[in-house]
Each structure stands twice: as C-alpha cells, then as structure tokens.
C-alpha cells in the first residue's frame, strides 16, 4: 500500500520533514531495496541495519525508519527523509498492523507444523478463481516476514491469506495480533523446534495461540485427524469447521486412489456438496492440505466446480514435493526445502505407495532443531525407512547417522545404507547408483543443502551417466 512518509510517521506516532514523499514499497534489506521504497533499519544479534542507511539512500530509498539515537547523530543530508522511532522492529509490526486495519477486509491465517505453505498456496489458488487475493510470498511468515507481507496489501485486494510460523512460545500470538485474522487454519502438530519446547504438547499449546487470538465471530478450520488439534475447539466461542479422513470431519476425503501419473483422486463430502477432486500431487498429506483449503474456501461460497479446477491445475512450489524426471524414467521427488519427523514419515508413506518403482531410494538430510532428543527421532525415522521397504538409504550430515542406526535395527541390510558428511558426496554416490525406473526421495532440513544432490543428479542430463552403466552398486 503506497503511503506518504507523513502517513507512515503518523501511524508510528513519529514525525517526518518530508511528509509529502510517497513510499512505493517497504524493505529491510538495503541490498535488494528498489528505488522509492521505505527502508527499515532493523537490529539483530549479528547485524545492524543502521550501518546500511547510506546504501539504502544510494539505491534510491524514499526514506528510512531509524532509531532516535541514530537520527540525532546522522549525516545532515539524510535527516529530512528519516522517521525516528524508539524501536524499528516494533515500528515495522506497528505499521503492518495499521495498514492491515486500513485495508479492513477478510484475512485467513494458516499455521501448523507441516503443510502450511502448501495449504496456503492451494487456498490462494482456490480463492483466486473468484477474488483478488494477496498471499504471503515464499516463507515470509515470521516477525519480520509477516509484516512485510501485510505491507503489500493494496485497496484492490479482496482477501488475504497469510502463513504464520513459530520457533518458540508466544510467536504465533504476536503474529496473530498483527494480522487480526477472521479465519484461522491449523494443519497439524508435530515434533518440530524441540530445542525450544519440552514436549509435543507444548508445541500444540503454541499452535493453539492462533485460535486463542482470533477475533470475535471468527472461524477455526481444524484438522480432525490430529489428536491434539482435535481438542482446539475447547473454550473457543467462534465457529469450527473440521477436515480430514475421520468420520466426524465436516469436510472428509473418501475413496482415495492413485490417478494417472502422479495424480491423486478422491471424493470430498462436505456440507451441501459431494464431488470428485483430481490433485496433481501424490500422498495422503497433500490430500489433507487440499481438504484444509477446501474447508476454508467454503466460507467464501466458492462453488465446487471452481475449487475442482483450481486444484486440478495446482503447481507445487520448488523443493516441496516437486516431481522431476531424469533420463530413462528415473523419478526424483524433490522435497528438500525442509524436514521434520512427521514430514519424513508422510513422504516415506508416499514413496512406499509409488506405483511401478523399480527401487526406492531415500537421500535423507539431518532434521534440525529437535533438541536433545534428536538422535531418538532420527532413529525412529530410520526404522520407518526399513518398514517402508526402501532399497537404499543415504543419510547426510550430523544426526542423519542415526537414520542408519534405526534402519539397520529395523532390518535394512547394512550394505544398503551409507552416511555422508555432506550433500555433494551423497549426490555423487546416488548418481552412480541409479537404474532406469528408480524413484528417489530427497528430503532434509534446509541448512543441509540437499539442492546440491538435485543439481548433481541433473548435471549429466541427456548424457550417458556412470549411474546408468551395467557395473554399479545395487
């Protein structure tokens, strides 16, 4: 939303000497700032944005929001375009909340341990059939990202779909107070960020903060298949809609079956309609994501035919259940954006059910932020690999070594598992391993860098690679 610096200053309880100047956008990074944007000089544990105010103006910033002590000692040439506040991070949130209120229309907030980004994308695609929708781009879902996403609101937007993430208690509550949603969607609760929580129950309480901070008269859209999320309606005075495979779900998936290619087909039974859905993604977890989107979209009176079309043409984001094909029919499931125990297990279930796979190979990167119980969670996933009858398991970095321990305990032959300190070594080994018809799942926490594995698998695309010769590990 384009605002004059005077309007921005007024919303922040500050002043500006160039009130007529208009901000054409908002930025917290001087390296990517576009001309005409307003720069927020944020402080962090390893950076101070005030050091880059000059760079921001050199790139054409319309102005900068800075701390008062900086304003007092800054160079004279910047002074007229500076808005001085006590705390720039709080000012960013305050402005985002003011803009959201000025916009004043319906906003949907989505949280959950897994699936929230895919659900957000699906819901935005469905709503986009009838409305002009703003969705939070990429993973702008934290204390800095959500405010920036809200500041992109324009008068022509009719609905907003925002993703809320957290790594510690209280974060979802803070984000919800900024976004002020009328609809709250919770996908699930799983063991993630355990370095900041003492139990999965504590994670559930943190996710419940979204429901606790919904406006009066709001609607909670909840996963009935999740035993913890199923309890979220307790004490909530608003409307509740549920989704899932459970018989009691308001929006329920029935007759789940694999379609042609990687498509999943199912029937949705919900209040007032019953229809078939074709989803160009594999796995029950993606069906749950679609159900969440359908349930939330039902509040906007989207006809079944509209969401059928939107979901049938849905395109997943890069590195999130992205289906890629190598020469000679080798399939790569690129799910390398992030990982946690629940997400790994759902993808292993998807891999186990993959039709026509010659061999099932898993390249599993370390799952981060699991605290002192991390080895146990990795062993449990390793046992799940063995139960899922994977043919090869390649663990990458750190605690991924415990994947192998669990898998060997579960019955995976010792010669079918390898541990690698880095992604490049794993990628080279995997490339030399391939046979026509193999299906490879690549999944791990973002910092492991498993995109290097994908790059190496495609490095010799169109050529005869060592991995496709007769003599190779099997």
Structure description:
Strands 10-11-9-12-13-14-15-16-17 form a nine-stranded mixed beta sheet, with helices on both faces. It has a six-stranded mixed beta sheet with strand order 18-19-23-20-21-22, with helices on both faces. A four-stranded parallel beta sheet has the order 3-4-7-8. It is built from 15 helices and 23 strands. The chain has three domains: 3-88, MurE/MurF, N-terminal domain (Udp-n-acetylmuramoylalanyl-d-glutamate--2,6- Diaminopimelate Ligase, Chain: A, domain 1, 3-Layer(aba) Sandwich), CATH 3.40.1390; 104-312, UDP-N-acetylmuramoyl-L-alanine:D-glutamate ligase; 322-468, Mur ligase, C-terminal domain (Protein-Tyrosine Phosphatase, Chain A), CATH 3.90.190.20. The radius of gyration is 24 Å and the shape is globular. Mean pLDDT is 92; it is low at 462-474. α5 (116-127) packs across α9 (284-297) and α7 packs parallel to α8. The longest helix is centred in the first third of the chain and has 16 residues, at 88-103. β20 (360-365), α12 and β21 form a beta-alpha-beta unit. The chain is α/β, with parallel strands linked by helices and 474 residues long.
Question: In short, what is this structure?
Answer:
The protein is of the alpha/beta class and 474 residues long.
Poorly predicted runs of 5 or more residues? 462-474
What's the assembly state of these chains? single chain
Main sheet record: 9 strands, mixed
**Gyration radius from CA atoms, angstroms:** 24 Å
**How far is the N terminus from the C terminus?**
58 Å
Mean pLDDT reading: 92
Class from helix and strand fractions: alpha/beta
Helix content: 25-40%
Q: What is the C-level CATH assignment of the largest domain?
A: Alpha Beta
Number of strands: 23
CATH topology descriptor of the largest domain:
UDP-N-acetylmuramoyl-L-alanine:D-glutamate ligase
Spell out the CATH superfamily of the largest domain: Mur-like, catalytic domain
**Number of helical stretches of at least 4 residues:** 15
Shape: globular
How much strand content do the residues show? 15-25%
Strand order across the biggest sheet?
10-11-9-12-13-14-15-16-17
Number of domains: 3
Named at the architecture level, the CATH assignment of the largest domain is 3-Layer(aba) Sandwich
């Amino acid at each position: 939303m384009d605002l004059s610096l005077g309007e921005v200053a007024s919303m922040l309880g500050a002043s500006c000497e160039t009130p007529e100047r208009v901000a054409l956008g908002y930025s917290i990074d001087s390296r990517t700032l576009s001309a005409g944007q307003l720069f927020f000089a944020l402080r962090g544990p390893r950076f101070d944005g005030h050091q880059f105010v000059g760079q921001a103006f050199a790139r054409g910033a319309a102005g900068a929001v800075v701390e008062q002590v900086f304003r007092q000692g800054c160079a004279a040439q910047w002074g007229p375009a500076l808005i001085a506040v006590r705390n720039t991070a709080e000012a960013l949130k305050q402005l985002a909340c003011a803009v959201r209120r000025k916009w004043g229309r319906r906003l949907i907030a989505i949280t959950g341990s897994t699936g929230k980004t895919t659900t957000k994308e699906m819901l935005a695609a469905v709503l986009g059939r009838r409305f002009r929708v703003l969705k939070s781009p990429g993973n702008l879902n934290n204390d800095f990202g959500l405010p920036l996403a809200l500041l992109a609101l324009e008068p022509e937007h009719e609905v907003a779909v925002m993703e809320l993430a957290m790594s510690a208690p209280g974060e979802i509550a803070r984000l919800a107070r900024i976004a002020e949603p009328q609809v709250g969607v919770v996908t699930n609760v799983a063991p993630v960020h355990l370095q900041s929580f003492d139990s999965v129950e504590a994670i559930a309480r943190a996710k419940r903060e979204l429901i606790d901070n919904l406006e009066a008269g709001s609607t909670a859209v909840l996963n009935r298949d999740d035993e913890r999320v199923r309890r979220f309606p307790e004490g909530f005075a608003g409307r509740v809609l549920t989704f899932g495979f459970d018989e009691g779900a308001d929006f329920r998936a029935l007759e789940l079956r694999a379609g042609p290619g990687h498509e999943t087909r199912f029937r949705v039974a919900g209040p007032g309609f019953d229809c078939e859905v074709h989803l160009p993604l594999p796995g029950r977890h993606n069906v749950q994501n679609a159900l969440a989107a359908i349930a939330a979209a039902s509040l906007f009176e989207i006809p079944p035919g509209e969401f059928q079309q939107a979901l049938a043409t849905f395109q997943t984001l890069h590195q999130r259940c992205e289906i890629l094909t190598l020469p000679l029919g080798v399939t790569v499931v690129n799910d390398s954006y992030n990982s946690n125990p629940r997400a790994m297990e759902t993808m292993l279930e998807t891999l186990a059910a993959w039709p026509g796979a010659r061999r099932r190979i898993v390249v599993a990167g370390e799952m981060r932020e699991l605290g002192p119980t991390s080895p146990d969670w990795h062993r449990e996933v390793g046992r799940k690999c063995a139960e899922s009858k994977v043919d090869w398991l390649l663990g990458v970095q750190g605690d991924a070594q415990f994947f192998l321990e669990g898998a060997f305990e579960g019955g995976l032959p010792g010669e079918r598992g390898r541990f690698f300190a880095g992604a490049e070594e794993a990628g080279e080994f995997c490339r030399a391993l391939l046979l026509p018809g193999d299906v490879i799942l690549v999944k791990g926490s973002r910092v492991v860098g498993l995109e290097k594995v994908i790059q190496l698998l495609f490095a010799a695309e169109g050529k005869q690679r060592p991995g496709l010769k007769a003599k190779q590990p099997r």
